[in-house]
Amino acid sequence: MAFLSDTDDIILRAIENYQTIETYVVTLRSVKDGHVSEEIKYYYKKPGFVRMEFITPHKGAVLVYNPETNKVRLRPFGFLKPLVLTLRPDNSLIKSAKGHTVDESDIGALLQTVSELQLHGVTEVHGEESVGGRPALQVFVEGEGAFTVDSDIHRYFLWLDKETLLPLRVSAYDLHGGLIEEVLMDDLEINRELSESLFDL
User: Fold this and answer.
1) Cα distance between residue 109 and residue 97, in whole Å
2) Other residues' Cβ atoms within 10 Å of the Cβ of residue 87
3) Which of 85, 133, 173, 187 maximizes the CB count within 10 A of its CB?
4) What is the second-level CATH architecture of the domain 7-199?
5) What's phi and psi for 50, nearest 5 deg?
6) Which sequence spans correspond to the domains of the chain?
């Protein structure tokens, strides 16, 4: 993919590319104080099916979301396979630390949030860097003045895969420059065949 000279278009291009993807699989690693605090194998299939297999800290737990029923099925303990809970996506038991819900946990939702910040701020492409062995464009998006999104995010640093423009690493900062969260998206595969049964418990 050619380097984009019009930096304001890069997030839009990323969203457009994402809309052409039917499925993806990725390992999400949340980093805090230099250590991995959460690790999840994440599966996505349009129009919004999600499967999360927890590696750290809730090893063995599995969560699936069905957009057709708007229900989440959760097996909280890998060693107790018969125990499965049915929950709404906004149930506090399954919200992330920042209050994110599973039905808005995909890359598309992230890019839309970045786009909202971009509309009220500045966007810069800072060059290229390798992430997980893949060439990536470094993109900086900052809100104008005190503008924030998603409660308190004022600035994003994104490393977008140079070929697909999908994020491989994302760091979010508050108004004072404090790191809110950093997520690594390792082993990203797109348009892999995923069976319907994968999103059922």
Assistant:
1) 17
2) 16
3) 173
4) Clam (2.50)
5) -135, 140
6) 7-199
What CA–CA distances, in Å, run from 12 to 95, 115, 140, 166?
A: 28, 7, 14, 11
Helices 107-119 + 10-19 axis angle, to 10: 150
Q: Indicate the pLDDT class of residue 1, thresholds 50, 70 and 90.
A: very low
Question: What are the structure tokens assigned to 79, written together?
Answer: 């060693």
Which own/partner pairs from 1-10 qualify as long-range (CB within 8 Å, at least 24 positions apart)? 1/162, 1/163, 1/165, 3/125, 3/137, 4/125, 4/137, 7/123, 7/124, 7/125, 7/139, 8/118, 8/123, 10/123, 10/125, 10/137, 10/139, 10/160, 10/165
Task: Count Cβ atoms below 10 Å from residue 79 Cβ, excluding itself.
Answer: 7
- Residue 170's SS3 state is strand
Pairing of strands 121-131, 85-87: unpaired
Give per-residue pLDDT as tens, 30-57. 988 778 889 999 999 999 999 999 999 8
Helix (H, G, I), strand (E, B) or coil at 96: coil
Angle at CA of residue 40, ends 156 and 61, nearest 5°: 140
Residue 35 contacts by C-beta under 8 Å, 6 or more apart in sequence?
A: none
Average pLDDT, the chain: 92
